[in-house]
Amino acid sequence: MCLRLMLVQLLLFMVANAALTTAQLDQRPKPDCLRKCGELESIPYPFGTEDGCFIHEDFLITCNSTDNNPPMPLLQKSNIRVTNITMEGRLQVQSYVSKDCYDGNGKNTNNTPSLTMGEYTISDTQNKFTVIGCDSYGYLRGTIDEKNYIAGCISSCDRLEDVTNGSCSGFGCCQIDIPKGLKGIKAKAYSFNTHEKVSQFNPCSYAFVIEKSRFNFSSSNLSATITKEIPTVPTAVDWAITGQGNCAEAGNNKSYACKENSDCYEPPDHSARGYLCKCKDGYQGNPYISNDCQDIDECKQGNYTCYHQSFCVNTEGSYMCECIKGYKGDGKIESCISNPLPFFKIGLGVGLGILMLLVVSSWIYFMLRNRRLIKLKEKFFQQNGGFLLQTQLSERNGTSDTARIFSAEELKKATNNFDEKRIIGRGGYGTVYKGFLIDSKPVAIKKSKIVDQSQIEQFINEVTILSQINHRNVVKLLGCCLEIEVPLLVYEYVTNGTLFEHIHNNDNAPTIPWETRLQIAAETAGVLSYLHSAAATPIIHRDVKSSNILLDDNFTAKVSDFGASKLFPMDVTQLSTMVQGTLGYLDPEYLHTSQLTEKSDVYSFGVVLVELMTGKKVLSFDKPEEERSLVMYFLSSLKEGSVFEILENGIVNDDNNEQMREVTELARRCLRVKGEERPTMKEVAMELEGLRRMNKHLWDNFEVNRGETEY
Question: What residues are paired with 585 via a beta bridge?
């Protein structure tokens, strides 16, 4: 009785499962779905215009028309016009342009468009964020993995003659790349001076995201008239089937979108999270529609190759070439031959071949298994310049100050196989982990980005030089690992966080008195002075900012992150480089000319000095416009004589009042627009060190000891 009951239950389960499978296989859109709307010639499934015609509400396209206007295809979730859909995961949409226009009376018209498209992402490979104008700058805001993102660029020119057609290098037009995974964008255009100087030929600023293949800058773009209409530009958007993970995860999902005779894939240049489907080789149709990927009859279409004495026979998903009677072989590989060998000879040959193949394959397998990892490590070691580094280190006779070459196993063990819980920082040049060496010594291990092969020698030279810097205020480079694809750098571990965290964390800021802040400034200036004028080969840091200044338990400054640094030969006064740095700290002269000099570090240090005095962030977009840029706010306050009003509460008193005036004046000199008018870091370091040592009694007796004080 129990056995009979179990058999009935099993039969019911099999019937239910078969019904579910059949329902999934037969899943198809309605046969009468509208597949064209206005200028959009094709709306393929999984997209559709009505219930039963699309796979998910993110794929719903409305097709509405108004009086005397043709139908317009719009993405239902964002009301954005769609002009093209490809099965390779791309949409082309018309996104709005932000404009900031001024007439002769200084009156402006502007708009801030947004592009919010549900699960769709802005293509990072097809688009560029672009700003047009001669007195203009623009910002692009959005989210990446639910984190806020902001970036921008500056465009300026004084005359139309300065503009080069087809070039967006900053004269009349500037462009930046789109990061991977960007969603919900908002573009905003601004004018520095309401186009007062250039209004005759350029009354507007424009900011927008556009397909780079659809845009070629021309000087005529600068003379656009002021209009009330909001223009649009073509923008490429990535789409994918989302909510089920990647291909490996989605295959077990009941709502798996790839139907019979199709494959799941994840395009390498795609920014949308999810997967796409395509018909298998030898099939054609829509892979998202059940039973739509049908076999291609290569024999009927003539799309086949059969050698002599053979003919084409279609198979499911492919074809074969059969030899005519009296011939033998595979006509798909070579011409068929007559008089085949006797069966026993063929069997003997095949048997011996298989036996030999097994012996040789086993031997090769065991050899390759033991040598594969060694070869791979040697490849990366050589590729990352390991032999060159070994040579340079051996020439230094292996002194105790020389950088070490660590093995990959050592650093994996030190970081618990690069556990995410060990991450202590992320930056534009890599990820930093906290690790412990065999002797329990804590270290900071930086996993860098892939090194450009054309710059290996320069990278190794930089590593060896930095390893020789034995300055108490520089985070010491202990060594590196070159056995993996991306080089690993090992630094000493600094315990008390960054200067940025202490200045801008309201809980910690009051604990840093002015004397300590002045000490940090003097120590940082001393390091930069050492790098510029005392190192064997001068080094320009190129990314001086408060988050790159670490502090130990005694608040001693430790300058870090030399990922953007440049070696600066003594016989060279400036270098042409691609502009790198952090917005807000970046030298404006370097930004406009791409000419790097040691004065670029001086400007960035000046920003840090103002940050120390005011306790304010260098860029604050949530504040009034005159306070958004700390440098501009500081300089304008200094000019108006109200600079003491913006200094941080509690750091100014009667004893240091004159000292603060000296530091504000020094900061002003560091922030001069022309690099040649700024002091050198050596002069800055000497002046700050002098201010540190100057006590209250020297100021009380200023007239008596004036000669000594001036000296």
Answer: none
